[in-house]
Amino acid sequence: MDVMTKPARRTAPASRLVRAELRWIFRRPRTLAVLGLLALIPVIMGIALTVADPTAASSGGPPGNDGGNLLPAAAASVLVLPIAALTMTLQMLLPLAAAMSGADALAGETSTGTLRGWLLAPVGRAKLLLVKALGVATFTLAAAAVIAATGILTALVINGDGTLSTLSGTTLSIPDAVGRVALAVGWVTLQLWAVGAIALAISAFTEHPMVVLASVLGGVIVFTVLGSLDALSWLHPFLLTEVWWSLVDVLRDPVPAADLIDGGLKAACYLAIGLSLAYARLVSKDG
Amino acid sequence: MNTKRKAATVAVAGTAAGALGLGLLAMPAGADSAPELPEIGAQQLVGSVLKTEPPAMSGTATVDNELGLPAMPGVPALDAQSARVYYDGDGKGRVAMEQQSSELTYVLGDKEFWSYDSAEGTATRTALPADARDKHRSAKAAGADPTRTAAQVVDRLEESSTVSVDGTARVAGRAAYELVLTPKPDERTLVREVRVAVDAEKRLPLRMSVLTHGTTDPAFEIGFSEIEFGPQPERLFEFSPPEGTKVTESEAGRPDGPRGESGEEPQFRVTGDGWDTVVLTRVPQEMRDRAQGEGADVEGMLDRFGKPVQGEFGSGHVIETRIGTALITEDGRLAAGAVPEQVLRQALENR
Amino acid sequence: MTAHAEPVVAGPSQQEGPALAARTRGLRKTYGRTVAVDHVDLDVPEGAVLGMLGPNGSGKTTTIRMLLGLVQPTEGEVQLLGHTMPERAGDALPDVGALVEGPGFHPFLSGRENLLRLAAAEPRLTAAGIPPAVDDALERVGLSRAGGRRYRGYSLGMKQRLGLAGALLVPRRLVVLDEPTNGLDPAGTREIRSVIADLHHDGVTVLVSSHLLAEVEATCTHVAVLNEGALVAQGDLTELLESESAGLEVSTTDVTAAVEALRAAHLAARPTPDGVRVELTRAAAPDVIATLVGAGVPVYEARRSRTGLEDLFARLTQDSEEAPTWTS
């Protein structure tokens, strides 16, 4: 039979599984809706800021505005708008999107009974987790990239040419600015992988996707609250949410790398915890 | 190995590795033990600090204050601010004060001094006199014999304090001596001691901490949390305001700062010496009027942060922090110092 | 349960028997204190269509899930196509098609897309072989025309058939179907039966679980009966039914005389509405008839009594406390 390969093959190649997984993720109406919604956020921010303050489009920022805010400068800058949008969405919406992806990957598939199909094919459980993790990773990268892309486009439309000034008052070259946005997207994606890994771990323990979403949402809120309590300052270095504001550092010149690196390493720690728990649960779980 | 045990092993190993990593990251830098350094005398240490030209470096300076001052609305929080500092080793520098999502940048270049506020989109340019930096350099060069200067400095300090080198510390990953100034027992001050950590190799002060009575945590500390020595890119010491920035020109010698528009300079008077020095001044009438005009409830704010006091000087409010006290009278007189309230009252009464 | 009932085993003993497509020994699964499956020694002969019977909650699905390596047994061993499960799942499962606990598909994808996604994980298919394999499977279950529609809009029967198509994506050596006729109309049930018959004809071993006895009686060559987690009977269907019905129904007009004559010959007999029933434990049928004829009892008709599977099933599963003790 020509459709048969050597009987020696015990499991389908991982690349084929990943492709099937990605097709499934990006064919899903819910995924597309979430990406569409995220894409709208920089547009809304850009328009709102321009309407609220027409000078924002032409000048660096409105005078007399109470300082400490990234937003006034955002609409004007091809550099600032995508990063302001990423910073804002990273506080809640992007982690939720990552959680949704992690929830669908295991809990959702368990609840529809589709996970069993792959387990019976058979797909080894370690490989299954690998494929699922890559799926979540790709989705979160897409989510961050979509925000950056529409952020750049919105700023270009509002502003025409686009100013590339940093918070430190220097002006970047275009490749440099593109590099900064790419750095921001990469760093945000790494943070989202950490959230996604935790979501996958929770996802492996339940068959209700909503439980995963609720846990991640609750976790982000609790972490944020804990992070705002000065009495718990010893705990703050352990909270992933605490590092998320460091993204603004991308807009400083030269980039103060310390906090970004620290945040990246913390995300890697969460990633290790999440994936190992997810693996442990998945291999011992009844299919 | 059976599946359950394998799963448990992976779970424990992965979680432990992650938690350990977080723990390591959470550990404050410089928590490691004090480095061993050759002994050095206080005078010699001060001398070497005075002799040293600060080398080219970049670093992050952090201000950590536990003054016990309540946060004021509209006033940026003072605690745990950090600034990135760049210095080219030859009189040019850049300081970037990080706020959560904006930055205040100060650039001292060859011929101009710039300040830039990214939140406001404003910049101020101050032209420097052509010879400013030369004068600065020659002054330093003419500082004659640093050893003698050091002796003078230490002598001056020793009139009111005990100066000593008290062990070593690690600051921003660098070995440092701890120079300690302890006020003499007859000094009426809130300060218990001031510690200055001096880089053992570069002889650059890396950290200053002010400690008060009754606690081991510094009430105020400023120092580097990171520092790296080495040449800095030239572009850091030049500034051209980004498109759309409102640029203000400022006269030389007067970098931007609060000034009375009428040009009336506040008058300062100093009483006492050493640690119980008290600065006396008068809050310019115009400033008070302006505050009132802008609707700021000065009285309410004073009531909130200070406590009302009365005495021979009249009545007013006293604001206390852990390292200093300020007394503002109803008629706009102000006395402040690193002293208890009693000393301020006396200073106001003895005028 | 302290002592485990020796299950009924019909047919030749295992040692010299045919090769087994699936075999469990001492299989046990507990969830906390609940015993779901208790020391099951199941044999699925190669080429057989084995019907797994049992009331709801008797452990059928759990046994099947352990067979397929989805669930880790608490105790005991499982061999699937000669490979130890779940450790060697990669060797066994590519040759096994399964539909367990109802069809599981994504509602927002079409039936065909769902099968494509499932087929991507089939080790036996090449990338190029996936689309034709999917189309063949759809054809086989009669869903070719509905393949492009979203799964969301499928009727229960269509869903079930799509699940069956998923199990038949590649030629299998063993097909495991858990309640395949659930929710199907009579026509759908017939189709499933014909698919099973085709598989049987091609030499594929089929394991079907069902609570529909008629279903099993009509399609299966072998049967295994589970009750409260224990295997209470298994073997060749015909032999099992015959071993159960060791009795002779005799039609006569003179019941009293018949009973007396048989009792005199030390044969157990009891009256039935149109004659007597004689247990064939001590004597063969011709002896019984000879005894009756010798005693002058008019014998109109005598036949071996054949209880249906239903009677057997009822007897096996109703009084579980007193497990059946008969053997072949």
From TrEMBL, chain A:
Keyword Thylakoid in annotation: no
GO molecular function: ABC-type transporter activity
A cellular-component GO term for this protein: plasma membrane
Keywords, in A-Z order: Membrane, Transmembrane, Transmembrane helix
UniProt keyword annotation of Magnesium present: no
Membrane-spanning residues: 32-52, 72-94, 134-158, 178-205, 212-235, 263-282
PANTHER family recorded: INTEGRAL MEMBRANE PROTEIN-RELATED (PTHR37305), MEMBRANE PROTEIN (PTHR37305:SF1)
Annotated protein name in UniProt: ABC-2 type transport system permease protein
From TrEMBL, chain B:
All copies of domain MucB/RseB N-terminal, residue ranges: 150-213
Keywords from the UniProt entry: Lipoprotein, Signal
Region (Disordered): 239-270
Signal peptide: 1-31
Membrane-crossing segments per the record: none
Ranges of Basic and acidic residues composition bias in the record: 246-262
UniProt xrefs under InterPro entries: LolA/LolB/LppX, MucB/RseB_N, Sporulation_related
Protein name as it appears in the record: Outer membrane lipoprotein carrier protein LolA
Lineage: Bacteria, Bacillati, Actinomycetota, Actinomycetes, Pseudonocardiales
UniProtKB/TrEMBL annotation, chain C:
Pfam family, one: ABC_tran
Region of interest (Disordered), residue spans: 1-20
Stored InterPro entries: AAA+_ATPase (IPR003593), ABC_transporter-like_ATP-bd (IPR003439), ABC_transporter-like_CS (IPR017871), P-loop_NTPase (IPR027417)
SMART domains listed in its UniProt record: AAA
Family: Belongs to the ABC transporter superfamily.
Entry protein name: ABC-2 type transport system ATP-binding protein
Native organism: Prauserella sediminis
PROSITE patterns tied to this protein: ABC_TRANSPORTER_1 (PS00211), ABC_TRANSPORTER_2 (PS50893)
Keywords: ATP-binding, Nucleotide-binding, Transport
Domain (ABC transporter): residue spans on this chain: 22-253
Molecular function terms from GO: ATP binding; ATP hydrolysis activity
PANTHER family named in the record: ABC TRANSPORTER, ATP-BINDING PROTEIN
This protein's record includes keyword rRNA processing: no
